[in-house]
Write a structure and sequence with these properties.
Elements: H1 7-17, H2 21-30, H3 35-44, H4 49-52, E1 60-67, E2 73-81, H5 84-87, H6 90-106, H7 111-116, E3 118-119, E4 122-123, H8 124-135, E5 140-148, E6 152-158, E7 163-169, H9 174-187, H10 199-215, H11 220-238, H12 253-257, E8 262-269, H13 281-289
Antiparallel strand pairs: 1-2, 2-5, 3-4, 6-7, 7-8
């Protein structure tokens, strides 16, 4: 009589190996519930190797985007791996494109919802785990943004996925969408206009400007005016609509928008905020030949 495979058995094997739920169930079924044999089954299939890679730093990879054919829903997503070599792998590129399209079509509420959603008959989290095993590096689904638009969505991917942008406009043509998305990629605005700049960011800039002015020996009585001028300059640099258009320095983004408004945008730069491990190549080679 075959052993009944319980959810607890699957959960325990998953925690032990890092393999996906469906793979763990298959392994336990194939080995009649023998946990030790199931681990070997997963290792033989190359799936359990993913667990050994779970602690590595994945700061390479790529940012991908997808806009539905009707132009009304779009997504931008960052998936990380350990090396830029793996990021160039066709399997990784296919995974990135498939996940971006899946996000746009299903509109998950957050990362947990995305990981628990089903794609090609598997949970997205299991697909990522399996990719870790088959590609041979830690693969990490890091973040995404998804917009719905009554106007126009535009996306832009720079340098093969080093920077990705998704922007939601109230209207405009395809060229305008592309120009605005490219501007965001190139100039890295932090807000659409000054109302979107966080108060703590402005306060910090004021503090820096004041200290700089005093260190420059400016008289106390004019420091406030200097700070005000520098804050205005700062806001023009970080607010999208006030930025100088990268393709025409005689115009601002507000000029090229005309009556079109930017509703929202997301700009992902690959690996930003991830602390990369410093590699000592000589030490690594020495350790391997001991």
């Amino acid at each position: 009589m075959a052993t009944k495979i319980t959810a607890a058995m699957v959960k325990e094997l998953r925690e032990k190996t890092g393999a996906g739920m469906m793979d763990c169930k298959k392994a336990l079924t194939a080995t009649d519930g023998d946990a030790a044999a199931a681990v070997d089954w997963l290792r033989e299939k190359g799936i359990a190797k993913a667990a050994k890679k779970s602690g590595r730093v994945a700061a390479e990879g790529a940012v991908g985007a997808y806009v539905t054919p009707d132009g009304k829903t779009g997504a931008v997503v960052e998936i990380n791996c350990e090396t830029d070599f793996a990021a160039g792998n066709e399997q990784f590129k296919s995974l990135l494109a498939k996940v971006a399209q899946h996000i746009a079509e299903t509109k998950p509420a957050d990362l947990d919802a995305l990981n628990n959603s089903e794609l090609d008959g598997q949970k997205v989290s299991d697909i990522i785990t399996n990719a870790t095993a088959t590609i041979g590096e830690k693969i990490s689904l890091r973040r995404f943004a998804c917009y719905e638009s009554a106007g126009r969505l535009a996306s832009y991917i720079h340098m093969g996925g080093k920077i990705g942008v998704l922007v939601n406009l109230t209207g405009g043509d395809e060229q305008l969408g592309k120009d605005v998305a490219m501007q965001i990629a190139a100039a890295a605005p932090i807000a659409i206009d000054e109302t979107g700049v966080p108060a703590d960011v402005i306060d910090h800039e004021k503090d820096v400007a004041r200290k700089t002015a005093l260190e420059e020996g400016k008289p106390e009585k004019i420091v406030d005016r200097i700070v005000e001028g520098r804050i205005k300059k700062f806001l023009k640099e970080v607010c999208l609509i006030d930025q100088i258009f990268v393709k025409d320095s005689d115009k601002t983004i507000k000029d090229i928008l005309g009556g079109v408004e930017v509703k929202e945008f997301t700009r992902f730069m690959l690996g930003e905020g991830i602390e990369k491990k410093e590699e000592n190549f000589a030490a690594e080679v020495a350790a391997q030949i001991k």
